[in-house]
């Protein structure tokens, strides 16, 4: 029995509320169980120097956790003077994951920055950030298309992510913190709406796993991502 009493192939309750901030070109609050992430998209008519005059757009991301997102207070990274390695790794993952679903020529020479701020953490914050980040990105691109600044839709496929792992000897979908902290194997799976893989992060945590178990986790991830993409589309009214 899972601590949450969910079936092994069951996601936590998912909700995506859009338009939650006044100023951002796109925003949403994604809730996956007790993991809550605020995702905002900012449009800028500029690109990093290495893309200047290339005709290519850019999508990047920043990620952070509020001090009381977890059971004990964490110091703000700004107070420490630098970002931690985990933060840098996660925001790079979010950025490259979202770029995989973007036609950067169609986007044009402009940048969209996705900010993912974890309000409450209970496992799977990077996956929730990617899933919610795509919704914020979609809303920002919709504004570009509505004004005619972009003619051809640069978002070629939705992007979503989910965690899976081996808990108590069983492959399970969408780990919450009690499972994640005890899982023998855990992984994060980033996929497109059409079922193509963007990135897989899998590691054994004091255990090993077989090819058959890896395939089982991939099957669960496919199911979970399909459900998350349906939630994304419902949130944007598609």
Write a structural description.
- The structure is a single chain.
- By secondary structure, the chain is an alpha+beta fold.
- The chain has one domain: Ribosomal Protein S5, domain 2, CATH 3.30.230.
- 32% of the residues lie in helices and 29% in strands.
- The chain contains six helices and nine strands; from the N terminus they run ββββαααβαββαββα.
- It has helices spanning 77-80, 85-99, 104-107, 125-147, 177-180, 211-236, and strands at 14-18, 26-32, 35-44, 58-65, 111-120, 159-167, 170-173, 185-192, 197-204.
- The strands form two sheets. A five-stranded mixed sheet has the order 1-2-3-5-4. Strands 7-6-8-9 form a four-stranded antiparallel sheet, with helices on both faces.
- It is globular.
- The mean pLDDT is 96.
The SSE string, one letter per element, is EEEEHHHEHEEHEEH
Please state the structural category: alpha+beta
By CATH, the superfamily comes out as: GHMP Kinase, N-terminal domain
- CATH top level label: Alpha Beta
Supply the number of structural domains.
1
Helix content: 25-40%
Number of helices, where a helix is a run of at least 4 consecutive DSSP H or I residues: 6
**N→C terminal distance:** 36 Å
- Which radius of gyration do the C-alpha atoms yield? 18 Å
Give the neighbour order of strands across the main sheet.
Answer: 1-2-3-5-4
Task: Enter the CATH topology name.
Answer: Ribosomal Protein S5, domain 2
**Uncertain segments:** none
The total of beta strands comes to 9
* Portion in beta strands: 25-35%
Roughly what is the average pLDDT, rounded to an integer?
A: 96
- Overall CATH architecture: 2-Layer Sandwich
Coarse morphology: globular
Could you give a short account of the major beta sheet?
A: 5 strands, mixed
EC number: 2.7.7.56
Protein name: Ribonuclease PH
Family: Belongs to the RNase PH family.
GO molecular function: 3'-5'-RNA exonuclease activity; tRNA binding; tRNA nucleotidyltransferase activity
């Amino acid at each position: 029995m899972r601590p949450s009493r969910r079936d092994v192939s069951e996601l936590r309750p998912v909700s995506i509320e859009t338009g939650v901030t006044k100023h951002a070109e796109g925003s949403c609050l994604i809730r996956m169980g007790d993991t809550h992430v605020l995702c905002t998209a900012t449009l800028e008519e500029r690109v990093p120097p290495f893309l200047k005059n290339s005709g290519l757009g850019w999508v990047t991301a920043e990620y952070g956790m509020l001090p009381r997102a977890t059971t004990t207070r964490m110091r703000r990274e700004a107070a420490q003077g630098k970002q931690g390695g985990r933060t840098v790794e996660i925001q790079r993952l979010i950025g490259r994951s979202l770029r995989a679903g973007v036609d950067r020529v169609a986007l044009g020479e402009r940048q969209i920055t996705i900010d993912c701020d974890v309000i409450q953490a209970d496992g799977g914050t990077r996956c929730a950030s990617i899933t919610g980040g795509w919704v914020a990105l979609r809303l920002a691109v919709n504004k570009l298309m509505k004004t005619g600044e972009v003619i051809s839709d640069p978002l070629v496929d939705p992007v979503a992510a989910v965690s899976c792992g081996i808990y108590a000897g069983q492959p399970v979908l969408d780990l919450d913190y009690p499972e994640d902290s005890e899982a023998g194997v855990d992984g994060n799976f980033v996929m497109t709406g059409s079922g193509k893989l963007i990135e897989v992060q899998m590691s054994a945590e004091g255990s090993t796993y077989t090819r058959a178990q890896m395939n089982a986790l991939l099957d669960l991830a496919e199911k979970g991502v399909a459900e998350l993409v349906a939630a994304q589309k419902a949130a944007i009214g598609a």
